Amino acid sequence: MLFGDFVEKNQGEVAIKDVVYEEFRDSMKVLHNAPPPPEPSTVRRNIEATLEIADRFQFDKLVKDCKEFLMDDNNQFIISFRRRFHVAFTHGFDAVQELFKRAVEVAVEAVEETCPNCPSPRYSPPSTIGSP
Quick one: pLDDT band at residue 29, thresholds 50, 70, 90? Predict the structure, then answer.
């Protein structure tokens, strides 16, 4: 939009519609490593908005940074495992999903080894009552 053969290239200002200013600004800060880094609460609140902006404007580096953020276990106190998995699933980050699935498998195995007489934490579909 800004560098291709588009009308916006020669405009002094470009109006970007359907984008929340603060979310776009924060995305640009992450994209360009601008100080200060976003607060954890901002990251938690804006990870999905940041990915939507990255997808919309084809900011591949920002998408890559978001994937790395989701995969980094040091961020588990910033954004929950469940939310990170949801974001990865929503945006089709297969590698992130596989990493999380493996983490769950390891946790289940640890529970089973630690407490062999406990009910299994593995999912088993409910039995159908009255089925032939």
Answer: confident
Which spans in the chain are helix H?
21-31, 40-56, 60-71, 81-90, 94-114
The pLDDT tens digits for 34-85 are 766 667 667 777 888 889 999 998 889 888 888 888 888 787 778 888 888 8
Measured distance CA(51)–CA(34) in Å, rounded:
18
The identity of residue 115, as a single letter, is: C
What is the C-alpha to C-alpha distance for residues 129 and 132, in angstroms, rounded to an integer? 9
**Which DSSP symbol is given to 91?**
T
Nearest to 24 by CA among 12, 10, 38, 11: 38
Task: Compute the distance between CA of residue 63 and CA of residue 90 in angstroms, rounded to an integer.
Answer: 13
Residue type, 100: F
| Residue 106: CB atoms within 10 Å | 10
Residue 36's contacts (CB-CB under 8 Å, 6 or more residues apart) are none
pTM to 2 decimals?
0.66
Token pair, residue 107, equals 């946790």
